[in-house]
Amino acid sequence: MTPETPMPEKADTQENQPRRDEQPGSGRSSGRSKVPVLVLLITALHVALLVTYSFVYTTWTGYDEAQHVDMVYGLQHGAGWPAPGEKMIATGVAATSDDFDRGRFQDMFQSGGKRRGSPSFAEIAPTPRGDRLSFDELGGATPVDDGRLSNQMIQHPPLVYAIGAGLLDVLPGSEHWAYDQQVLVLRLLNILLLAPVPLLAWAAARRFGLRGPLATAAAALPLAVPGFTRVGATFNNDGILVLATGALTVVLAGVVRGDLRRRTAAWAGLWFGVAMLSKAFAFVLPFTIVAAYLVGWRQARRDQHPTDDRRPSGGRVRLPVLPAVIAVGLGVAIGGWWWVRNYLLYDALQPNGWATDPPRREPLLLPDSFFTWLWYFVRTMISRFWGGLGMFEPPQLSPIAIVAATVTVIGLSVTAVVTAARRRAPVAEAVMEDAPAAATEAAPDAAVEASPKAATTAAPEATTTAEATTAGAGLGLITRAAAPLVLLAPVFLAYLMVGQRSWAEYERYTRGIAVQGRYLYLGLVGLAVVVAAGLGRSLGRRARWAPSIVLLGALVMQGLALLAVCSYYWLPRGVRFVPTRIPDVVSAIARWAPLPVGVTIGAFVLTGLLWVGVLLVSVRTARRGPAATSRADADGETTETSPQPDQVALA
C-alpha cells in the first residue's frame, strides 16, 4: 500500500502489508506479477481445444472460410483490393471449396441434409492426402467466370489478410503445399491471435480488482463457449478483433478504477486502432472508451487525497478530456483512414461487398411482424452465441445447455452489477500488481499499466457509518453500477448493431439475416470478468472454488458440443454415438485432416490430458484454502478469498 493511504483501524494486517516485490511509496510494483500455473494450464488447454476443433471442422467448414482465404491468396498474387463487386473468387480456391458452398456437400453442410439422407463426411472418401494439390495446381489466381456473386470480404479492412499473406510468403515452398495445408497455416494464425484470450481475461480481472481465484475463473470462462472455440479454430477476421478488443478491455479495466494516465490512454488508442483495422464492430469501442474515462474520473474523485502528487494541486481531479482524446484519437489515426477511404470512394463507411442484392437462403419468418422477428432474433442470437456449430444448423448444442448457460451468465452479470449499485461505502481493494507482461503476447513491452492506486487496500469493516453515507451520496446508483457495465458495453452495443441490421433486412426480405452470435465475441473478455465477479458474490467465502466450477461447466459445454458435431459430421447416417464409436470418429476426422493421422490423434489425446490436469490442479488449489494464501500469493497463485468478494471485485 502507498504511505499516503491511511491504515483502517480494523484492516487485516497481513492483507495490508506491502508485497515483497513492491517499492514502498510508489504505488507500483518493481516487477511483474507471476501468472498462476493454473492460468497457464487453462491457456494451454484453450489452445489445444482450438487445434482439436481445427481438425474436427475440416477445411472450408468455417464461416465464409473460402472467401477469407481467397482474400489472402489474392494479395499473394497481386490482386490488391478491388472495388466491391469486382473481386471474384480464385479458381484455385473454388476448385475445392465449391463442394461445400454449392456442390456435393452443400445439402448436408448448409441445409441439414443428413436428416434427408445426404451422406456425412464419415461416409465420403476424401482425396488421399498425398494426392491433394496446391491452389496453384488447382487453377491458380484466375478468377472464376461463371456469373456467381463476388467475394464480399472486400468490404472489410485488410489487416489480417495482409498478415496471412505475409506469413505464407515467408514459409519456404508454401505455394507448393496442398491447399488444405495452406489453409491450416491460416487457421493456426487465427489460433495464435486468440491464444492469449484466457490471459487477457485474467489480467483484466486483476486490474478490475478481482482476487486470485476469481481472476482465474475469468480466464476459464472463454472455454465454456464452444461457438467461440469453433470460430477461433478456422480462418476469419473475427480473431484479430477479439484479440484487440480483449487487450483494450485489460486497459479499460484499470481506467474505470482511476488510472487516467496518458500512457494508459496511448495503449487504449493502440488497441482501438488495431480493432478499427479488423472489422466494423470496432465502431462500438469509442463509446466504451469514453464511458470508461467518465467512470474512472468519478472513481478518482472519490479516491483523491490532498497529499497524492498524482492529483492536481487544486484538490479536484480534472475531467479526463485529454486521456480520452488520446485514446480515441490515436485509434482513429491508426485505423480510421480505412473507413474514410471507403466513404470517399463508395459513399459508405462499409459498402455492400457484393455491390448487388444477393438471393437469400434464409427461410421466411411469418407472420410478418416485429414480434416475429424479435423472437427469432433473441433466441437465435443466444443459440448461436453458445453453439453456432453448423452452417447454419444442424449440428446444434442441446437447448437445455443453452438455456442453462444463458440463465447462469445473465444471473451472475446482474448480481455483479446490482452488488456494485447497492454498495454505499468504500470497500476493500484487491492487492494488485502491474498488469502482467504475459497477459498479452501481442504487446511485449507491457501493453498496459496498473492503476496508480492499485496497491492500495482498505477493509470495509473499518469504514465508519458517516464515511459510508458520504460515499454513497457522492457516487449515486448509476455511477456505482457503471464500472461493470463498461466492461459489458462491447457485448451490449454489438448486440444492438446486429439487431439494427437484422431488423432492416427483415423489413426488406421478411427473413432472419445476419443473426450471428459470433459477433458478440469481441466482448468476451469483459463478460468473463463481470461473470466472475458475480460468481464470487454468489459463492462468498467459498469463492476459491470458482475456477473449478467454471472449468467443470466448460467441460460439460465442450463435451456436448463435440458430441453434436461428431454425431452429425463424423458418424454415418442412422448411427448413434456411443463411447465405442470414438475410434471410428477420430479415424474419419484423421482421413480428412491435412496432416498425418498421428498428429490428429495426438491433438485429441493432448487435449484430454490437459482437461484432466487442469481440473486436478484447480481442485488441489481450492482445497489448499485460505491457509496457503501467503505462499501462493507470492507465487502469483492467490487462493485467498475475500469475505466479500463482490466488494473486492467492484471496488
From TrEMBL:
One annotated GO molecular function: glycosyltransferase activity
Record's keyword annotation contains Ribonucleoprotein: no
Domain of life assignment: Bacteria
Keyword tRNA processing: no
Family annotation (InterPro entries): RgtA/B/C-like (IPR038731)
Region annotation Disordered: where it falls in the sequence: 1-32, 627-651
Biased composition, class Basic and acidic residues, residue ranges: 7-23
Pfam families: PMT_2
Residue intervals of the Glycosyltransferase RgtA/B/C/D-like domain: 182-298
Transmembrane segments: 35-56, 184-202, 214-233, 239-256, 268-297, 317-340, 399-421, 477-498, 518-536, 548-571, 591-617
Protein keywords: Glycosyltransferase, Membrane, Transferase, Transmembrane, Transmembrane helix
Name under which the protein is recorded: Dolichyl-phosphate-mannose-protein mannosyltransferase
Protein source organism: Parafrankia irregularis
